UniProtKB/TrEMBL annotation:
<feature type="domain" description="Bacterial bifunctional deaminase-reductase C-terminal">
    <location>
        <begin position="7"/>
        <end position="171"/>
    </location>
</feature>
<protein>
    <submittedName>
        <fullName>Deaminase</fullName>
    </submittedName>
</protein>
<dbReference type="GO" id="GO:0008703">
    <property type="term" value="F:5-amino-6-(5-phosphoribosylamino)uracil reductase activity"/>
</dbReference>
<dbReference type="InterPro" id="IPR024072">
    <property type="entry name" value="DHFR-like_dom_sf"/>
</dbReference>
<dbReference type="GO" id="GO:0009231">
    <property type="term" value="P:riboflavin biosynthetic process"/>
</dbReference>
<dbReference type="InterPro" id="IPR002734">
    <property type="entry name" value="RibDG_C"/>
</dbReference>
<dbReference type="Pfam" id="PF01872">
    <property type="entry name" value="RibD_C"/>
</dbReference>
<dbReference type="InterPro" id="IPR050765">
    <property type="entry name" value="Riboflavin_Biosynth_HTPR"/>
</dbReference>
Length: 187
C-alpha cells in the first residue's frame, strides 16, 4: 500500500529551521503574520494529511505553544524514551518507537495515505530511508547564522524535481519539490 510522505516546513535563507536552542520566534514577526501568502497554505496542506509524524524535540517545542495547533489531526511522536503526554492530548498524540520504514508500513495498514513529516531529525530519517515524496519549503527572509539545520551533513544525495516556486510580498519564497530518487518502502 502506498503512503505519501510530505514535508511542509519553513527555514531561514541559510537553511536553519530553528535557533541552536530550538527557538522559532524569528518566524513570528508581525509583518509575516498579516501578509497574504502565495503557494500552498498550511490550512490547505494540513487538510490533506491523515496524520502528522514528528520527533520528541518537536513535540516539546509544540507543547510550549499557547494552544495545540493540530486539532483534528492525529499526531505520532517518534521516541524510544517514555514520554508523558498531557491529559488534554490523550487520544490525540501517540508515541511510537521503531524505524521509520516499519512505522510507515504500520500506518498504511491502519488506512493512512498521507503523512506530514515534521522536525529536523525526523525529516532527515525519512529522507534517508527514501520515504519522502514531497518537500514544500518556505524560505523566510532572515539569515540566522547558526541553528538546527533542515538537512544534515550526513546522508545520501536526493534528486528532486521542481514543481513550483511562489514569492509572497513579505519576502517568503516557497518551493515545492517531488523527490524522484529513493525507494518508497511502503508502496
Amino acid at each position: 500500500m502506498y503512503v505519501k510522505c510530505s514535508v511542509f516546513i519553513a527555514a531561514s535563507v541559510d537553511g536553519f529551521i530553528a535557533r541552536p536552542d530550538g527557538d522559532i520566534e524569528w518566524l513570528h514577526q508581525p509583518a509575516y503574520e498579516t501578509a497574504e501568502l502565495k503557494g500552498v497554505t498550511y490550512e490547505n496542506f494540513i487538510a490533506t494529511v491523515d496524520a502528522l509524524v514528528m520527533g520528541r524535540k518537536t513535540l516539546e517545542k509544540v507543547l510550549s505553544f499557547p494552544e495545540w495547533p493540530y486539532e483534528g489531526t492525529p499526531v505520532i511522536v517518534l521516541s524510544y524514551q517514555q514520554l508523558q503526554i498531557p491529559a488534554h492530548l490523550e487520544g490525540k498524540v501517540k508515541v511510537m518507537a521503531g524505524d521509520v520504514t516499519s512505522l510507515v508500513a504500520t500506518l498504511a495498514e491502519r488506512g493512512m495515505k498521507h503523512l506530514y513529516i515534521d522536525g529536523g531529525q525526523t525529516i532527515q530519517a525519512f529522507l534517508e530511508a527514501g520515504l519522502v515524496n514531497e518537500l514544500i519549503i518556505t524560505r523566510i527572509p532572515v539569515v540566522l547564522g547558526q541553528g538546527i539545520p533542515l538537512f544534515s551533513q550526513v546522508g545520501s544525495e536526493q534528486e528532486l524535481h521542481h514543481v513550483a516556486t511562489y514569492v509572497s510580498d513579505n519576502g517568503f519564497v516557497q518551493s515545492r519539490y517531488q523527490v524522484t530518487a529513493g525507494a518508497h518502502a511502503a508502496q
